[in-house]
Amino acid sequence: MTARTLLGLLVAGLVLAALAALPLFAGPYAVTLMIGMTGYVVLATAWGLFSGPTRYVSLATVAFFGIGAYTVGVFSETLPYPLVLLVAALIGLAVALVVGLSTLRLAGVYFVIFTFGLAELIRQLVTWYEVNVTGTLGRYIFLPVTPEGIYWQLLALAAATFLFSWGIGRTRWGLALKVIGDDEVVASHCGIDITRLKLALFAVSAVIITLVGAIQAPRWTYIEPSIAFNPTISFLTLIMALLGGADRLWGPLLGAIPLFLLFEWLSANFPNHYPIILGLVFIAIVFLLPKGVLAAVESRLRKGGAR
């Protein structure tokens, strides 16, 4: 391990410690804001973990997020909280493996359409079950988990996600994923097991997203399908990852923080026009920054150096 890597890890550790100490000095509103921001940082990073190197655009984020939230709603009264999180992760893993085995051979717009349809299918199935089997539409969640506890859990999950993403990028699997993203035909000729590698990464990403939903569920006293499976979550995660650069380690982080603050302000001040503005922001990012802010900055620096 080089001195530069050790210095980077030391700085990251100090920043993590400072963020962990924030609830001790901040007020309730700041803690709530940090919970939402950290949640989207993890979602965008987990999305970029799979979609960044493989270039598969997934809209299934809210499907796994909602699975995590609803698992807490169903089992919170019968199982200890840590065990509920474990059950949520296992359910997310099982769904990801089933979905991955059946769909990762798709590509392009077909994969996008399928993942969007998957999220809607799961939402409709949960709604049907609640209405026709349980006779209700939602679930109440009463857990002795404080906002500070939720924030610390999300912060730990964010650190683990970044560490995993950084670690896999330094292995031969990271190189294999880059080859897959460039050309799957070349990757298969190089002897790379494309299906197994994509499936493993998709499953890890799905488990992380599921845990985000499960950890944040105690924030809501009451959840229902329209809350847990809100498609806006998928689109916000996608926009955040694209803005920073989904194929960069710090890209989703740099995209999630400013956009989360912007969308919070817009939803508070322009609630009726918020969806329209969200769509315009999405279009602007796709056309003006298709590879993200970091890629644009690197390109500008290279041109400046050449001159």
Describe the structure.
- The protein is mainly α and 307 residues long.
- It has one domain (3-306): ABC transporter involved in vitamin B12 uptake, BtuC, CATH 1.10.3470.
- 78% of the residues lie in helices and 1% in strands.
- A two-stranded antiparallel ribbon has the order 1-2.
- α2 (28-54) packs across α11 (232-244).
- This is Amino acid/amide ABC transporter membrane protein 2 (HAAT family).
CATH architecture: Orthogonal Bundle
Mean pLDDT: 84
Strand-pairing-aware structural class: mainly alpha
Low-confidence region ranges: none
How many domains comprise the coordinates? 1
How many separate helices?
Answer: 14
Transmembrane segments: 30-50, 57-75, 81-101, 108-129, 149-168, 199-217, 223-243, 250-268, 274-297
Subcellular location: Cell membrane
Main location: membrane
Membrane topology: Multi-pass membrane protein
